[in-house]
Amino acid sequence: MLPAMSPSRWPTLCLLAFLCTGNARGQERPNLESPYTRPPDNLDWKPKGLEVEPFRFGVSSDWWGARDSLEDFGIGVGARLIWETSEVYRGGFRKRWTDRWFADAGLVWELGPSIGLTGGKFYVEGYWRDGSLSNTDLGGVQIPSNFEGDNEVGLRELYYQQMFWGELLRIRLGRLDEGKEFQRLEYGMEFLDFTGTRSPSTLDPAAYPYQGEGVEIFIKPEQELQIGIGIEDRNGSPLLAPGWDGDAWLFDVEGRLDWWDEARRGRLYMGYFRHTGGFLDGDGAVRTQNWGWYVGGEKDLYRVETGDGGAHSISLLANFTYGDRWVSSARKHWMFGLRFQGLIPTRTTDSLGILTSYVQRNGKQGWPEDKGEFLVETFYRIDIGGFLFLQPDLQYFHHPGGSSGRSEAWVALLRATLVF
């Protein structure tokens, strides 16, 4: 494990970064997202040329022109390193500072420029994770860090994508992380708690990354409308009952609207998921499915582009998820958030977020149905030159874990992200 930085230093680091750095100038700013659903191939709001923008002009710059040369052949590569420290300084099971590391690297090869196969794309991404778990000290349903988990090196995605008739039909085939395409909130990815990225009623947050071999089909009859269907193999999933030796599959169906109105983005989605296999209910019996539905969206309430890659904006995001009444440990989940960008005139790529989230525990899993876990999270994300990001974050939990015997807990975090 790499050495941890003294927690007493991070306020000083944040202050120095804020006072001594400006916005990125003369560079294309990386479009970073959370490590859970951030796609290095950047399936973004609008197509913007070769889909490797998050890895352009990181700390390693353009490799003396090599990246531009590779992009002439449709190839984009890049990597990212994240360090995070946190403390449960009130409530929880234990008060201590912990730290964790995360790194990922990806390669995307669009086949049109090199072999003339228009709409074809090959993609591979791997990751490394090491460090302590913040939720071991908290014991919450909504995990404070959206990438923590077992120390491991793994393959997150390996797939081929083909588009037909322009954008009308898109197919992804291979090892897939369904969180990149379904129940996706762009602005939610900046929040550090897991609930900003994925609802705990949809899956077990400890199952990151949530991937398997399968196929996803997307139909886009209009520029704003997308209908997606996903089928993925989930044999070996940690969500399955111990000893389950039958088949396990994940089915997703989602309709999504994306629109732009005077540079203001908007997204609205509604979906259904069904996870087949063996799942334990509260009585220890094995159920053969885990299903639910969700609805959510996000919208720029106000947005003015500044011309330097930044903006002054106010955005709203929300999500509701209903989980299986027999199997899901989180029966219902509500989430609302606000995101502000460029609040300080000279810091137009910095962002601030406020999120509230409530999880109702499932009485069928032995939890009182009138009890739940309430979360409030706030962060400020500092952009240093477009390749380094510092993000102090504070989270408040009421009834952590949905336990009426535990009143409240506070968690402080600091994350540093370096893009190569």
Draw up the topology in text.
Elements: H1 10-20, H2 66-72, E1 75-90, E2 97-110, H3 112-115, E3 120-131, H4 134-138, E4 152-164, E5 169-177, E6 211-219, E7 225-233, E8 249-261, E9 264-280, E10 286-305, E11 311-322, E12 330-341, E13 351-361, E14 372-384, E15 388-398, E16 408-419
Antiparallel strand pairs: 1-2, 1-16, 2-3, 3-4, 4-5, 5-6, 6-7, 7-8, 8-9, 9-10, 10-11, 11-12, 12-13, 13-14, 14-15, 15-16
How would you concisely characterize the structure shown here?
The protein has 420 residues and is mainly β. The protein has helices at residues 10-20, 66-72, 112-115, 134-138; strands at residues 75-90, 97-110, 120-131, 152-164, 169-177, 211-219, 225-233, 249-261, 264-280, 286-305, 311-322, 330-341, 351-361, 372-384, 388-398, 408-419.
Features:
16 strands; mainly beta; 16-stranded antiparallel barrel; 420 residues; 6% helix; single chain
